Amino acid sequence: MADIIQLLPDHVANQIAAGEVVQRPASVVKELLENAIDAKATSVTLVIKDAGKTLVKVTDNGSGMSITDARLSFERHATSKIKSAEDLFNLHTKGFRGEALASIAAIAHVELKTKTEASEIGTHLTIEGSKVISQDPAVVPKGTTISVKNLFYNIPARRNFLKSNPVETRHIIDEFHRVALAHPSVAFQMHHNGSDVFNLPSSNSRQRIVNIFGSKTNEKLVPVSEETEILKIEGFVLKPEYGKKSRGEQFFFVNDRFIKSPYLHHAVSSAFEGLIKNDVHPGYFLFLEVDPHSIDINIHPTKTEIKFDDEHSIYAMLRATVKHSLGQFNIAPVLDFERDKGFDTPYDYSKKQPTAPSIEVDKDFNPFKERAKQGNINFPFKREQTASWESLYVGLKDENTAVSNLGDIEFESEEVTGSLFENTDAETGHITFQIQNKYIVSPLKNGMMVIHQNLAHQRILYEELLKNITVKEAVSQQLLFPLQLHFSKPDLEIIEKIREQLEHTGFIFSELKDETIEISGIPVLILESHVVNLLNQLVHDIKEEVPDNGFSQNDMLVKSMAASMAIKTGVSLNREEREHLINQLFACKEPTVSPTNKPVFTTMDVSDLDKKLM
């Protein structure tokens, strides 16, 4: 039998390796930013066009490369980070495999400009699909500039699998956040399609978090700090009241490397047990330092998973540290950049024993002593004779003027705006009731119908909002006091893009700038207290998947809004509300299914009951 196994050509092997290393433009951004950090850069600039599909450009002021190193850096398994197998367990750098640049060059047009501080002239290298096109001397500043153009140009199938530009941009921003948070001492800039996205100066960890996620984040942070023989923990967790329904601001860094660890996440979540609801996720920015010999990073191509030698001890220490910080965050001094530190209690006072204040009283003190000696004491104030206390009730009638029925007293409603259901006084005669505050049971001629109240309300709101956003004739309710909400810059950009659709549903934005949104009007279908949660959920859904402009985007927005606004399981409804919900449901075009195609109700005949009970 003839031999059938053969070695793959280098360009094919590089493209296969690129499938593991480069999955989307964000993968290229991650590798290039980490290379800049390894080059000891103090300033890094990221420029992207068309969500990285057209251009990803990273410029740094690091050590740069010589002519030979510039050429060798694009060869497979060529690296300066390790020299032996033992070095894999003593890593202090980001990249070490020597696959990133070779994989990127195999599927894109790459242009490299670099120069070391000792060299008088730099190098300009051009590569297309692993093939070196040119290598010439060039006058360039110290450091490295690498441009990756036309990603996946020679693999159209991979390019077709990329998501829309907003989704790919979101992934790039996530990678940018991870690298920028891990290295607060490095200045970072990011530009997308000619506009500035981030300008982060060199700072400390707290300031870096605030610069990325907005100034309001500062008041949410709780410091976490602990150091033991095997682990050092620094960072912050968000106060329990700022937990979110979605997993957003959750960052683990081990030796300044971002990782994903469900095991450690469970440790943090268990520390919040009893402080947040079961369906709410805590936020955290935790930096762990361990001995490099006690971890294995080389278990995943993206290097975002780490294997610890002693996971149980790290779990226990992390949980205890976070729990300890949460137990004293309300009495710990608050760090604020604009606060007068003179009002803070010094830390030294925590170790001092309390002492009772001493009080000296002069028992012989008499303010009239001197005047008494002169014999001219005069009291200027004379107490007036007051009427007896019975005179307070003179003139009151003896008739019983008390309110005979407390039900007649009308109180001002605590609701500011909106109502879940319209009030109806009409007696319909139907008998309905709830089961577990989740299902509504209504009798039929030959049986009964069981309705899921949350899914039913979602269908009602979905059709109403979709009609408003399509016809553009939504009714708004004006707010007496405008709402001022704070969002991070990326979230604010998302809301800006869907502002027109939100206005068609009834929102009125009076101001939208500088991480602040001012809303002066909201749809009549929503309560004022629900606006913040609705917008947060809407931003999260858009981050996950943004469809193209048109009906599909409107449909996604309306589905997200309907899910946020619908009555939840556990809400008790009175008879009028239950009947009104049923009437509205069967006035819809598609009452049988929810917006996510789940059945809204089911029916049960008397014959079905007879089969079960006879």
UniProtKB/TrEMBL annotation:
> Where do the DNA mismatch repair protein S5 domain residues begin and end?
209-327
One Gene Ontology term of the molecular function aspect: endonuclease activity
Q: Sorted alphabetically, which keywords does the UniProt record give?
A: DNA damage, DNA repair, Endonuclease, Hydrolase, Nuclease
Q: Which SMART domains match?
A: DNA_mis_repair (SM01340), MutL_C (SM00853)
Q: Which GO terms describe its biological process?
A: mismatch repair
Q: Which Pfam families match?
A: DNA_mis_repair, HATPase_c_3, MutL_C
Any one GO CC term of the record: mismatch repair complex
MutL C-terminal dimerisation domain: which residues?
431-573
Q: Show the PANTHER family listed in the entry.
A: DNA MISMATCH REPAIR PROTEIN MLH, PMS, MUTL, DNA MISMATCH REPAIR PROTEIN MLH1
Q: What's this chain's function?
A: This protein is involved in the repair of mismatches in DNA. It is required for dam-dependent methyl-directed DNA mismatch repair. May act as a 'molecular matchmaker', a protein that promotes the formation of a stable complex between two or more DNA-binding proteins in an ATP-dependent manner without itself being part of a final effector complex.
- NCBIfam families, from UniProt? mutl
The similarity annotation says:
Belongs to the DNA mismatch repair MutL/HexB family.
Q: What is this protein called?
A: DNA mismatch repair protein MutL
